[in-house]
Amino acid sequence: MRPPEVLLDDFDTVYDFYRDHRQNRAKALAAYAFLARRFRPRVHFADGAPEAVQALVRSGRPLLIAVNHLSRHDPYTVAAAAWRSPLRRLIGRVRVLAKDELFVDPKLRKQVDMMGAIPVFRGKDHGLRAVNAAGQRMMDCCAERLARGDHLAVFPEGTCNVVDPTRVQPVGSGIGHIAFRAQKLGAAPALLSLALSYGPRPGDGTEPSKQEVVGSSFYFGHPVTELPARPAEISRLVRAELQVALDGAVAAY
């Protein structure tokens, strides 16, 4: 199927495509390796987390990976950290939620498609009422991918945290609904919190530069293999677990 334009007015066609889209795994592996050399992340783990993550990767169980969001560089530094972690084996089978504006420029779209992105039409960009139906389709698309054995990475805060990089901002309900719908389809996703820190910031809301994110600190929390029954409870758990991981990333910077 030819890649459709990523337009809110044609969201059904968009999600029909991304429900089945597969990136070129060889190119993805090469890109992740390049980013690991470029950004040189320092990766840390909670006690027992490396073994637990490795066991989940070997089992084939779908992972729902929650990551805090600090800057526009995050997708690249997170990819670099994945290369230097047990997640390397999953490269090419991880979907990543990305805002729809990243799919406009053809060159950039090739990059995000290669990284396994699924577009999100955000309420802050288009209006909450306008994106409601598209949001439902997006969550169904993600749940289907998880039910097929793919993995999903989400920045659940929804936008860059320019308030306090040491505190997880409010988490939307979307990640809870995705996990809930995946469970309804027979999947049993495990929650993995991956937090990042670019070090102390000046407090003026400016994002770190590309040079300032080199050598960033990443911290894997211990996976949660039993999720609550309701979407809101899952979202609350995500925020709590992600804060624990963020505390670890900040301490290890």
From TrEMBL:
A GO term, aspect molecular function: acyltransferase activity
Domain Phospholipid/glycerol acyltransferase residues, every copy? 63-199
An example Pfam family from this entry, by short name, is Acyltransferase
Question: In its keyword annotation, does this UniProt entry include Acyltransferase?
Answer: yes
Q: What is this protein called?
A: Lysophospholipid acyltransferase family protein
Q: Which UniProt keywords apply?
A: Acyltransferase, Transferase
Signal peptide per UniProt: none
